[in-house]
Fold ATP phosphoribosyltransferase.
Amino acid sequence: MAPIKIALTKGRTEQQVVPLLAASGINCSGLRNKGRKLIFKDDPRYEFILVKGPDVLTYLNSGTVQVGIVGSDILDEQTNFQYAMLNLSVGKCRFVLASTADFNPQQQRRKIIATKYPNITKRYFEGIGEDVEIIKIEGSVELAPLIGLADAIVDIVETGTTLRENNLKVYAKLQPVNTKLVVNRLALRQYQPQIKTLIKNLQAADQQAARANQIEELSK
Ligand code: PRP
């Protein structure tokens, strides 16, 4: 049987998910010492590719990979035709509207909002009946209100460190974000037993890690 191809989001998601994959019984030796490599075949059952979040959906939607591990921020922002099969307890964070201390959410002038997530931002402001101008930024979004490019930002907050270190405040809490395992619809039929096993083992490892974290939090 050919290995199942899994697109894993590089960076924070990868760092949080690789220990779970290893705990679920997958050989992750290459992923743990990856250097600049992008494809990992250490476990004969799986082939991992490391890609940026939005590209996980490009690979999934094209059918070139069967499984993706990606944040719900990317799923909510982009068009995705696949099934989200498993919510992982890692990667939990939240979208917020943030700005400098002198920002007035009731300002009369049409607001300019900078974000990496124009669709989520558009939906949020449409939902509260406000017409805003949206500027798409590729990263370090926190700079925009500090430099005068925008009145405020819509971005993800995880620990809150980036906002704090840049003297920005939260003005509204939007939807929560978590990491999800997504499966290509066709692959779900073709590889059903293998995908079920992957999900069952990963879910068990995730639940165990979540319980261990809870105990650690309680003992602090
Ligand atoms: C994300 C997000 C914030 C930061 C929040 O950026 O866009 O900037 O993390 O995390 P914190 O609350 O733990 O500080 P990322 O690190 O992905 O980099 P980027 O700014 O280049 O997009």
